[in-house]
């Protein structure tokens, strides 16, 4: 999936050989790259992470982020790439490179990861929209491989059945792990025999899913499967994530167990924030990022620190924008902020001056932060 957003710390680039290029649907492709022996350590990764590809084309040099579909045990970089439209830079990537060519690929990065618990009985639910399936495929393969007691449910939404990416791989996983994995497909623009599977994945649909799919729990007759859910993984567009994350939270899943990866620019808060602050205007902000010093003035404190820096076009790292993933962690060196939500920093880290820029409301006219000190 093409993610145009500068959401991560920068990683080293190396040239990797393209070993497979396969068309999956009308506009999605799978690419695979081999990891040479000498770079094995550089490309160790966790399920759910992504890489940046830098590639020249007739229209200039492009740099795009793509989630990996491979699981760590597969020891290769596999990606799912969508060409969004005729102008999309990913079209050049797909057209200009053939098997055998070398492409510049960054070392893996990203915080859409889970702690592995191979000895526990867990229930994990995934929601994917369109090409948002890519990091979930990596997670699901990894969990099925490493956690013999974990059961998984995948809810995958597309407009039409012909748009399902990685259908063959998903179906073979569901067949191989029939006792632990169930996959349900939803279509927003195609009739389905059961109305449950028609429409978008959103809050309303989640209620139906809980009532009609996740109702009885064979392993615990007192409870439903939903009661047993340990982790939720969501990947897709902002509106889908917002709707599902809030619905999961309102249905009893703690925020720290709801993990999501945004696949588009989205500057709204995922979870609503209800609190009033004294208004501060013309805030001077100095910050250090990737060894560069920046200065800017922010109009007021109505919008949180990270979001204002992104609106001004600074390449500040982020992922969840909700105080959960830690991508926007930085050290407050001067000034005052209020951290609205924090599911990531420990008390000790907060006391040492660390903040999460995405959840920081500025309360002083001068703020100085350092993103490199974490
Ligand atoms: S972007 Fe995830 S904690 Fe700020």
From TrEMBL:
The keyword rRNA processing does not apply. Keywords: 2Fe-2S, FAD, Flavoprotein, Iron, Iron-sulfur, Metal-binding, Oxidoreductase. InterPro entries: 2Fe-2S_ferredoxin-like_sf (IPR036010), 2Fe-2S_ferredoxin-type (IPR001041), 2Fe2S_fd_BS (IPR006058), Beta-grasp_dom_sf (IPR012675), Cbr1-like_FAD-bd_dom (IPR008333), FAD-bd_FR_type (IPR017927), FNR_nucleotide-bd (IPR039261), MRET (IPR050415). Pfam families: FAD_binding_6 (PF00970), Fer2 (PF00111), NAD_binding_1 (PF00175). Residues 11-115 form the FAD-binding FR-type domain. Residues 283-374 form the 2Fe-2S ferredoxin-type domain. Its cofactor is FAD. This is 2Fe-2S iron-sulfur cluster-binding protein.
